[in-house]
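Fold it.
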Amino acid sequence: MKVSDILRVKGNRTLYTVTPDEPLAQAIGVMAEKDIGSLVVMEHGALAGMLTFREVIACIVKNGGSVGNVVVRKAMDDHPLACTPETELDDVRHMMLDSHARYMPVLEDRVLMGVISFYDVAKAVVDSQNFENRMLKAYIRDWPGGEEQPGAQL
């Protein structure tokens, strides 16, 4: 399974972006209003970073419990992990686990195609395993010459 499969299942969802020079308080307001855990930071049409609740909390702690007049640039991750639509799901899963990343932008030729979350990856894995289990159970039930025994459970 590839990242493009996850994006296809997610559908054409809106991507919320912010610029590096926007006030952090404004970005936090968007995250709260839209009930999202990340914003893609774009500058001059290119990915400049990611802003997630992790960076927001770290910034607030660093500022003594206040956002103050901080701009997004001061809080964002300016070197986020990224993948392409052709990246294999197993590779993404390992990348996210190794770096503790919860969100990953998907880029194709430097164009933002979407953002996948660790939830999206976990859901795709579980859905795939459920499908495989159903196919295996159907195969076992339909085994040539093998009749299902009364009372047998799969």
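The mean pLDDT is 89.
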